[in-house]
């Protein structure tokens, strides 16, 4: 019985992912590192895929994912140019820590944004982190992935290459 339930849940999750693909990026504002409001839609440049990876200061898999993305960013970006933003989901109580952590960890390869009220998370129907979304240059959702295991960054890069073809 449990195996059937897990199979149904997995099918529903895949179906949800497939339905979400093709949706446009929402017009939600988040904070940049200086505290200014930035429209997520304005991050698109019309030429390169846009990657958003959601994380928090209390999420150990998020830290591992950000380490892996930092390690591979320059090499991947040479082969397939893309825009990457790490979006903190920390609330106002832990915002100072979230803003300080990137420089303390050496995560300076890409910019960080802060979804303090989780407006972007809600708009994208994200309920757990780490969570990565990739948008095509036209702003249509191409790929979404929940969780992180070492090696997931290889799948992420394959998806970027698929967009470049």
Summarize the topology.
Layout: H1 2-20, E1 29-31, E2 37-39, E3 50-55, H2 60-79, E4 83-88, H3 95-105, E5 112-114, H4 119-123, E6 131-135, E7 141-146, H5 152-164
Parallel strand pairs: 3-4, 4-5
Antiparallel strand pairs: 1-2, 3-6, 6-7
Helix pairs in contact: 2-5
Please name the defining characteristics of this protein.
165 residues, alpha/beta, Glutaredoxin, 5-stranded mixed sheet, two-stranded antiparallel ribbon, 7 strands, 19% strand, globular
Quick structural gist:
Helix content is 41%, strand content 19%. It is of the alpha/beta class and 165 residues long.
* CA distance, first residue to last residue: 43 Å
Q: Which ranges are low-confidence, i.e. pLDDT below 50, for 5 or more consecutive residues?
A: 5-19
The proportion of residues in beta strands is 15-25%
Note the total helix count: 5
Order of helices and strands: HEEEHEHEHEEH
- Percent helix: 40-55%
Q: What's the CATH class label?
A: Alpha Beta
* Strand ordering within the main sheet: 5-4-3-6-7
* Structural class label: alpha/beta
- The beta-strand count equals 7
* Main sheet attributes: strand count, strand direction, barrel closure: 5 strands, mixed
* Overall structural domain count: 1
In the CATH hierarchy, the third-tier topology is known as Glutaredoxin
Q: Could you name the CATH homologous superfamily?
A: Glutaredoxin
Shape: globular
Task: Tell me what the CATH architecture is.
Answer: 3-Layer(aba) Sandwich
Mean pLDDT: 89
The Rg value, from CA coordinates, equals 16 Å
């Amino acid at each position: 019985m449990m195996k059937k339930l897990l199979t149904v849940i997995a099918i529903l999750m895949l179906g949800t992912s497939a339905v979400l693909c093709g949706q446009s990026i929402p017009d939600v504002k988040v904070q940049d590192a200086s505290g200014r409001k930035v429209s997520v839609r304005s991050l698109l440049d019309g030429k390169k895929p846009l990657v958003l990876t959601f994380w928090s200061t209390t999420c150990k898999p998020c830290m591992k994912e950000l380490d892996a993305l930092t390690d591979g960013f320059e090499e991947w970006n040479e082969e397939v140019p893309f825009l990457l933003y790490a979006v903190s989901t920390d609330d106002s109580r832990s915002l100072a820590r979230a803003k300080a952590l990137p420089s303390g960890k050496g995560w300076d390869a890409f910019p960080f944004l802060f979804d303090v009220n989780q407006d972007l998370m809600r708009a994208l129907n994200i309920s757990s982190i780490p969570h990565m979304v990739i948008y095509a240059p036209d702003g249509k959702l191409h790929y979404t992935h929940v969780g992180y295991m070492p090696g997931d960054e290889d799948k992420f890069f394959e998806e970027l290459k698929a967009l470049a073809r």
